[in-house]
Amino acid sequence: MPEPLRGTGVSPGVGAGTVRTVAGEIPEPPAGTAAGDSETERDTALAALEDVAADLEARAERAAAAGNQDGRDVLVAQAMMARDPSLADGVRERTAAGATAARAVYEAFGVYRELLAGAGEYLAARVRDLDDIRDRAVARLLGLPMPGVPESDEPFVLVARDLAPADTAVLDPARVVAFVTEEGGPTSHTAIIARTLGVPAVVALRGATSLADGTRVLVDGAAGTVRVDPSDEEVAAARAAAAARAAALEDAVGPGATRDGHPVPLLANIGGPKDLDAALANGAEGVGLYRTEFLFLDRSAPPDPAEQEEAYRAVLEAFPQGRVVVRTLDAGADKPLAFLPPPGEEPNPALGERGLRMMRRHPDVLAAQLAALARAAAGLTAKLQVMAPMVTDADDTAYFAAACRDAGLEHPGVMIEVPAAALRARDLASEVEFFSIGTNDLAQYACAADRQIGALAALQDPWRPALLDLIAPAADAGVPCGVCGEAAGDPALACVLVGLGVTSLSMSAPSLPLVRTALAHHTLAQCQAAAAAARSARTAAEAREAARRHLPALHTLGL
Ligand code: PEP
Ligand code: MG
Fold first, then answer.
1. Which domains does the chain have, with CATH numbers?
2. Cα 494 to chain centroid, rounded
3. Is 201 helix (H, G, I), strand (E, B) or coil?
4. Does the C-beta of 441 come closer than 6 Å to ligand 1?
5. Cα distance between residue 323 and residue 384, in whole Å
6. By the 8 A CB rule, do 447 and 428 touch?
7. pLDDT tens per residue, range 488-535
8. Whose C-alpha in 10, 135, 283, 334 is 20 to 30 A from the C-alpha of 511?
9. Is the beta carbon of 289 within 6 A of some atom in ligand 1?
């Protein structure tokens, strides 16, 4: 049997059907001087943007009427982007300088595109939203077919380079049995909307757009695979496995624990109060990583103390019996902030003044954040724990613990993201109450591979035995040690982490049921055996395979 195509599964479930591909790309309009007068070009361009905004609003209404609130919100935000006054100014400037309407629109979007693309992983994902608005406006101006989802009366598998929110938000899940995209990641809109609609989805599948229209495929959104020309037996087997998996996920409720009752609190990674609903719906026992930088982005000064306090309190109030781990501002590198520029030229921003390093340069910003946190927690029952990112050694750790004490915060911790901190975890442990391992950064620094460079993605694989070797001493340093990087959301790796001695796992909300189920079906001894096997392997692939042999229920459960 030929191997299936492999991508990243971002929305579980199985879908079988024929491929329908989203219309091709809109070409870049040529540079050059407009033949007509500049006022006409300007008015035509602005009218096209307004038409696009109105169309997006109409789609938003349709999405709302279909009960798709997430889709509606995305479309409303896109309509606002299309009406952004600075964008219109950019168009006016360019048409006044002689550009055609289409070229002026294209270039005016380019400015925002670059800003977003350089502003970190989460905002980079929004570039797709922006490109979609641009392409719709340019298609109108050039008289090209509108990019978007093909019409079909038959159920089909939607294949695209990447899906735009305007497409996915109004899709009928009864018609579209699965999404497959060439690009996109777990935080792309394709992923978010697929999960909301309950449509199986695989993203980042190389060669997806070469699948010819009409080809029959079987998509497994949990395994991240696409099988071309599956037999009826394969489809039936995949459906049965998906049903067994869905039933197992429904059965796994309550606090995280191994089969023999070893507790492993399962917490959510959030970027603000807007993520609380999903965290609670998926049974999070608290928050293991509150990425506070989203409060600080797109501003020329830090948010005022009252605004910070409110954003922190909303999260603490959501978990009256739980704990909330707030990470202090992680500015720099992939999360640049306008009001905290690096002090000088940084040829390698990931190795520069970021995280706690930046806060040590701006102690007033750190103190204001810690004070806002202390005020937010006053009188509430949730346990507030505060941790610093990008900590290198015991000196950094002692500095942060002292800053927390000065603010009246009792539970300081640090993230283990730098190999030096992992190797000397025992030195750090005497200064703080807990660790949280950021496997995304720890992998980037362990393998000297910038996490923003897609071509180096294989070096970010959290199954690398070298990464497991760095996690082990941190988990064994004598203080509670969680993991809050993406690794915690992989059901098999979550078991391995528990086997290494990790005491809690924090992940994006949709992964919680998967990890809860994986743990509930294995004993602590099995997790330990899986961890030992993974560390004995030579490569990431071998580590994954070796660990899974000790975690037999993963196969039965289709995890
Ligand atoms: C990490 O590095 O693993 C982490 C959780 O932090 P971030 O992804 O925000 O850098
Ligand atoms: Mg990090």
1. 5-23+148-248 (3.50.30.10), 38-142 (1.10.274.10), 252-557 (3.20.20.60)
2. 18
3. strand
4. yes
5. 6
6. no
7. 988 999 999 999 999 999 998 878 998 999 999 999 999 999 999 999
8. 334
9. yes
